[in-house]
Amino acid sequence: MNFKIKTNDSNICIKTIRETKDLLEEIKVLDPKVALVDKSISENYPFIFDEFKNLDIDIFAITDPETEKNLETLEKGYYFLQKNNVQRTDFILAIGGGATTDFAGFLASTFKRGIKLCLMPTTLLGQVDACIGGKTAINFGNIKNLVGSFYNPSEIIICTEFLNTLGEQEYLTGISEIIKHALITSDDEISFVLENIENIKMRDQIVLEEIISRSISIKHNVVNEDFTEKGRRKFLNFGHTFGHGIESSNLKKPMLHGHAVAIGMMMALKYSSELNFIEASNYEMVSNLIKRLGYDFSEVSLNSNAIYASMKSDKKNTEKDSISLILLKNVGEPFIYNENDGSKLLEFLERFIKDFE
Ligand SMILES: NC(=O)c1ccc[n+]([C@@H]2O[C@H](COP(=O)([O-])OP(=O)(O)OC[C@H]3O[C@@H](n4cnc5c(N)ncnc54)[C@H](O)[C@@H]3O)[C@@H](O)[C@H]2O)c1
Predict the structure, then answer these.
(1) Which residue's alpha carbon is nearest to atom 4 within ligand 1?
(2) 232: which of 41, 44, 155, 177 is 20 to 30 A away, CA to CA?
């Protein structure tokens, strides 16, 4: 499947491919000068790297992507590009999950004030979320994504076969973003997820190609209207305000982001229904979906006070003494709700956690 998405200042060509063997032709056409590669990909798909050697493409290997998404690796990256005499018109190719593509995006955006970039995301989260929207970043100090830029790649190549080697829970963390995109868009989108649940679980390549393309288009349309997150882009935080609270109450044993978002979406739907914005059946529908998909929440600890404290200090809150939540009036109708009554929210969290456990 080939499609183009238009950003404010350029076009991004997106290609979806089912088999990794077909990537070789794409790489030849692209003719990148260098490639930044997540090591798990070079281990799982060694034939791609034999091709890099044949084409004389130098490789910058990333062994532990989230840990190496930092200033030290960035400096090594600049030396690597300089050594390879990379010019602004040369392509650099990034192959890996969201941490690798975020890092590569920041590197590309800052080297010589911006060089051409092709992303080949290899995790589901990377394919439906991190590669779209132009946000690039590295972590700094203990803060995730503190230093970054807005910079779009000119090409994105999605290969669904890469998803076959992802662990079950790593795969589900990407499904959370697909569910989120569907819920903030329309009944049709969430129905497509529900109708295809067995195929999604089996990682059926045809259904994955379709669902990934839909999810990309949804995120792109939202971002395109609001690149710098002043309005509609905030709706992409559906489930995330609660989710960040859940993540920060699990810092001792970090959990997968998508798992926090899955619980966060259930919380947001239940709260929306308790405030009489949406029918309670929507909460039941999403919690059944999440249950059927097989998320493992056994190691997750939910502490209402810690979640509430983190939500209260969220930098995305817009009004003093209130917490900005993205709630739903209906499937496809997200809106910003500023909760001023902290004790009501805290009491809700306590009840939700009791029922959830
Ligand atoms: N820029 C954005 O808009 C945006 C949006 C969401 C998330 N992110 C960022 O994305 C990152 C999370 O992305 P992620 O979940 O892809 O994490 P990740 O890149 O750390 O990858 C997760 C793990 O999967 C491995 N892996 C990658 N592809 C694989 C494959 N095909 N088979 C087997 N293993 C594979 C990696 O080596 C890693 O161990 C975070 O750094 C987050 O900040 C960015």
Answers:
(1) 130
(2) 155
Considering its fold, how many domains does the chain have in total? 2
Q: Note whether 16 and 121 are within 8 A (CB).
A: no
Confidence band, pLDDT 50/70/90 cuts, at residue 193 = very high
Q: At what angle do helices 46-54 and 23-30 cross, to 10 degrees?
A: 30
**Which residues constitute the domain of residue 263?**
168-356
Rounded Cα distance, 40 and 329, in Å: 42
Q: Are residues 10 and 48 in the same domain?
A: yes
Token pair for 270: 């239940």
Pocket of ligand 1 (CB under 6 A): 38, 40-41, 44, 65-66, 69, 96-100, 102, 122-123, 125-126, 129-130, 133, 135, 144-145, 162, 165-166, 170, 173
Residue 156 and residue 32 share a domain = yes
- 289 and 233 part of one domain: yes
Q: Same structural domain for residues 179 and 86?
A: no
CA nearest neighbour of 243 among 263, 273, 219, 269: 263
Q: What is the pLDDT of residues 238-286, one digit of tens each?
A: 999 999 999 988 888 889 999 999 999 999 999 999 999 999 999 999 9
Phi then psi for residue 94, to 5 deg, are -115, 125
Distance CA(40)–CA(47), nearest Å, equals 13
